[in-house]
Amino acid sequence: MSEQKNINRREFLKRLGIGAAATTTVLAGCDTKNNPVTGNHTVQGEVPTDQMTYRTNPKNGEKVSILGYGCMRWPMKSADDGNGEVIDQDAVNNLIDYALAHGINYFDTAPPYCRGLSEKATGIALKRHPRSSYYIATKMSNHRLVGQGLSPQELFDASVQMYRNSFRDLQTDYIDYYLLHIVGMGEGLPTLMERFFDNHLLDFLLKEREAGRIRNLGFSYHGDVKAFDYLLSRHDEFHWDFVQIQLNYVDYRHASGINFNADYLYAELDKRGIPAVVMEPLLGGRLAGLTDYLNARLKQRRPEESIASWAFRFAASFPRVLTVLSGMTYMEHLQDNIRTFAPLDLCTDEELALLEDTAQTMLKYPSVPCTACQYCMPCPYGLDIPGIFAHYNKCINEGNVPSSSQDENYRRARRAFLVGYDRSVPRLRQANHCIGCNQCTHHCPQSIDIPAQMQRIDHFVEQLKQEKL
Known about the structure:
The protein is an alpha/beta fold. Helix content is 41%, strand content 12%. It has an eight-stranded parallel beta barrel with strand order 3-6-7-8-9-10-11-12, surrounded by seven helices. Strands 1-2 form a two-stranded antiparallel sheet. The chain has a two-stranded antiparallel sheet with strand order 4-5. Strand 1 and strand 2 (63-65) form a beta hairpin. The relative contact order is 0.16.
């Protein structure tokens, strides 16, 4: 139950010098069984009940499971009244019961997750267990209140109400790990100032930590690195207890869009002694299933383990990482991840080099860097934006995105793409219904030009249908 097979910082950095790659992971899903985040895991062997690896919080000595449960994508079901979907509470209860029984004790949620339903569902499931048996993480998600014409006082009041609603929905009187959510988005540093400084909201949260209602205070980062650097520059004043960053074997040295290389982010936290919480270890599910060639290379090294396990082991091999979040919508995903971390087997020198080479090879493929976070949802015109991107990326990995009708296996690839598209995304929610309103783009942590990608994918679909490639 202690930290197993750990290495010291000098040895780890020496290993990385060989050529370890970086990764980004997004975990979990509120969607279908072919979840774009968790992918299709290989489930084999027994699931250990008493071998979970733990990391120690240096502030208070808390033992935190290296596998954290991301609650962004709980399983959904049709509402009883036929009006939309609701969280499947029985399924959530079963997943949380199983997770706790197998050593997972960190549960990460936020007010917007699962269309605003995650905190309540998570609270219902956790309330059935002793409060001392788990740690709750949630967030100040007031980023969508910015730009609504609110005065600083109005923004403060609305934010504090959000904070108090989290306590109500989670059915708790203290939050173990509380985060300033998605710092760096919007206009970067000016947005950060508006959300937390101009209205004195951060002062309020610091006082809540002093009062014990917040046990650990940190922030999650996406976007403008100036916001990240600014908050760390005031660490001596604010004493951040932890910071959540996007880290995987692609993003470690090859981050795209507005994201920043995780090797820099991690190093800045490490030199200040700040624990890191990892999000996006699977890069929106893309690291759960690669191309046949890349899958075969990894399977040759570890034939009994899933492709996703490589990404999780990479992220957890950093000694300053407190926990790695995974959204495990289904029991098979949960079981597979428990096997990976119970106990954790750190990446070797050769494996780090192999993952760096894998990352460089992946950069050659024209996939969409969507992590299925669903911040772009709901689309006002009904599009399933993450579902469209997930199908497109899946077909790239499987070799079903032909560049020409002269390609070998063109007929097979064409049929696989079109039939799979209709099965995974209802026709009324496909890319051809995008009108380019652009309401989604500024919410995307990966800075994807979503309307442009929708237009590109729709054009490709029409070419396939009319056989004009």
